[in-house]
Amino acid sequence: MTNVINGRKIAKQLNQETKTRVDKLKKEKGIIPGIAVILVGDNPASVIYTRNKQRTAEKLGMKSILKKFPKDVSQAEVLQAIHHYNNDPTIHAILIQLPLPKHLNQTELIEAIAPEKDVDGFNSKNVGKLYNNEDGHYPVSCTSRGIMTLLHSYLDKIEGKNVTIIGRSILVSRPLQSLLINENATVTMVSLHTDNIDYYTKHADILVVAAGKPNLIKKDQVKAGATVIDVGINRMANHHLVGDVDFDDVKEVAENITPVPGGVGPMTIATLMQQTVDLAEWNK
Ligand code: NAD
Fold first, then answer.
1. Which entry of 118, 120, 230, 278 is annotated as an active-site residue?
2. What is the pLDDT of residues 47-56, one digit of tens each?
3. Residues 6 or more apart whose Cβ sits within 8 Å of residue 248
4. What is the pTM of this model?
5. Are β-strands 186-190 and 162-166 bridged in parallel, bridged antiparallel, or unpaired?
6. Is 213 a known active-site residue?
7. pLDDT by residue (tens digit) across 181-195?
């Protein structure tokens, strides 16, 4: 029997836990966790994502600021906003909605976020701590941490598993690679530059697909009994969202599989909320 991994349900449970933590922080310390989201331009997907983030934060009782800039904003203006929130004690988490217009230097902006407010975990200081498997508190990529939460909900252990990740992005795949290695999985990453991708996918106990190619993966590429995590979000001409995995085909062989929508997506936002409260607690 195939389990369809219910990301919405797990995200809801996580949000309930986060709400309890928010209420406790308010009651015991008088702290309201605050998040500032910076949105540049009017990319329709980014507008929807930032709105959902803001609504969820408000629902959980947090302070939420959406700072909007026109698409031709200068680097200096965005930097100024980041410096402002770095120095605002009511803001514990700062997020820059990606992708940014090409004229902006994304790396410089991410590096300008104070590491202790870098809720997406993309600042090189936090990336380095994750890579080195350092002890202590630091934020990591919300999508990658959300995937780990899903895996822990459906699998007894990650240790010893063969994992193949399709894609090698710095936003999802590389932080996920570190999180998995830190839990003693054996991780292989493949990309467009890899010959014979099927060899790696067929050996995977856990297959994570983050390629951004609709219905790329079919059942004959997947090991029987595998856990398949589909990160892809692809909007088709008919406006339907589909993942990178051919869900109906692959669910015939997978033991656990995420749907799109309703799999990884809700976990990204729930983890963002979880990590905002983490930052408020760690830096109080
Ligand atoms: P990306 O788009 O930056 O890069 C894609 C990677 O996949 C590259 O490394 C490329 O080499 C590899 N790739 C592409 N086609 C391939 C193929 N045919 N075979 C092997 N490798 C291939 O990666 P990203 O930013 O991680 O985004 C990937 C997908 O995940 C996108 O659809 C994006 O929208 C989605 N995404 C979803 C969430 C979420 O919350 N669910 C979060 C972030 C990204």
1. 120
2. 999 999 999 9
3. none
4. 0.98
5. parallel
6. no
7. 999 999 999 999 999
